[in-house]
Design brief:
This protein is α/β, with parallel strands linked by helices. The chain has one domain: Rossmann fold (3-Layer(aba) Sandwich). The protein contains eight helices and eight strands. A six-stranded parallel β-sheet has the order 5-4-1-6-7-8, sandwiched between helices. Strands 2-3 form a two-stranded antiparallel ribbon.
């Protein structure tokens, strides 16, 4: 883990937040419907945090090892345009995604919870993880949320980035004008 000042310095530079789905945007549970389709539960706090972060100019991307319509629907609801599904080779997926409009790795944050996420987390400027991540992921992360995946951890990460970039108070003031 980094010192508070080192963490804020890295967070200030972030222009893209890359998220895993299972275990980060969801609690990692998989529910299967009668037709064999996977059902996922997403947290509204995480979703609103993503929307707020995007309003500040930070882009958000999803790279996940699984495929599913639920992921596409949630991404569409949140205005996330960069989505890579069914990708175990997450760093290669990131490179392909960035090919048309490169972003330096030190300006990218990645939030993951398990070993496949390490291929990106260990190469980008800011490695974020959830409270219930695998111990090897926690050991390599720069920051860990208090909340578990699917329980507001992504919102914590979004708030961290907005605070570091001095946009948190401005965005909050748009909602709390009656204070």
């Amino acid at each position: 883990m980094l010192s508070e000042s080192q963490l804020l310095e890295k967070a200030r530079a972030i222009r893209l937040l890359v998220l895993d789905v299972d275990g980060v945007l969801t609690d990692g549970s998989l529910y299967y419907g009668p037709q064999g389709e996977a059902l996922k539960v997403f947290n509204t706090l995480d979703g609103h945090g993503i929307k707020l972060l995007q309003r500040t100019g930070v882009r958000v991307a999803i790279i996940t090892g699984r495929r599913g319509d639920a992921i596409l629907s949630r991404a569409r609801d949140l205005g996330i345009e960069w989505i890579q599904q069914g990708r175990e080779d997450k760093f290669v997926a990131l490179q392909e995604m960035l090919a048309p409009a490169p972003i330096p790795l030190n300006e990218i944050a990645c939030m993951g919870d398990d070993w496949p996420d390490l291929t990106v987390m260990t190469r980008v400027g800011l490695a974020l993880t959830v409270a219930n991540a695998h111990s090897e992921v926690k050991a390599r992360a720069h920051w860990q949320s208090h909340n578990s995946g699917g329980q507001g951890a992504v919102r914590e990460a979004c708030d961290l980035l907005m605070r570091a970039q001095n946009s948190f108070s401005r965005v909050l003031a748009e909602y709390a004008a009656g204070d």
